[in-house]
From TrEMBL:
Species annotation: Chryseobacterium bernardetii
InterPro entries in UniProt: cNMP-bd_dom, cNMP-bd_dom_sf, RmlC-like_jellyroll
Domain Cyclic nucleotide-binding: 13-99
Pfam families documented for this protein: cNMP_binding
Superkingdom of origin organism: Bacteria
Protein name: Crp/Fnr family transcriptional regulator
Length: 172
């Protein structure tokens, strides 16, 4: 569905990012939206030199630093390729022209934003749950593909637990 909508009437530039290469760095304004054709990325910020992963994207996902994309202001977030990643990139201007050109395109964008809000609320709930096992189970139920696409060290960071704890939970 996502790819079908995005293929109609919008100019995408295909870019390939090497492992660990940045799509966006902290302090910059994100004026692009990304569709991941292949690969995976992490969205994170740093807190006193510690990385805090807040989101992942992988094949078939739309990724954007939404705070910056919507406000036009710089964001503290980084988007970094976890492995070689191929994305389609569109400018905010072109993307907005696209979604405003057709009611179905606007419905698609509203649905995408609604999904992002729900995902963010789920993420906030996860962070409020103290027990690592519960956080793990919630994410496993919600996003089983995550465990196939993303290395454990990043998932552990996302879940706010040590890689050893994650490993133990996966075994049990």
């Amino acid at each position: 569905m996502v790819e079908k909508v995005l293929q109609s009437g919008i100019h995408w530039e295909r870019k390939v990012f090497k492992r660990n290469e940045f799509l966006k760095i902290s302090g910059s304004t994100d004026t692009h939206i990304y569709f991941i054709e292949q690969g995976s990325v992490r969205i994170y910020m740093t807190d006193e030199n510690e990385e805090r992963i807040i989101r992942f994207g992988y094949t078939g996902n739309i990724i954007v630093c939404l705070d910056s994309f919507l406000s036009g202001k710089p964001s503290e977030l980084y988007i970094q390729a976890i492995k070689k990643t191929t994305v389609k990139v569109a400018s905010k201007k072109e993307f907005y022209e696209f979604i405003q050109s057709d009611e179905e395109h606007m419905k698609f964008w509203i649905s995408t934003l609604e999904d992002l809000v729900v995902q963010q609320l789920e993420r906030e709930k996860d962070l409020l749950i103290n027990a690592p096992g519960e956080r793990f189970e919630r994410v496993l139920t919600r996003s089983p593909k995550l465990f196939q696409e993303i290395p454990n060290k990043y998932i552990a960071n996302y879940l706010r637990m040590s890689p050893e704890t994650l490993s133990r939970l996966k075994k049990s």
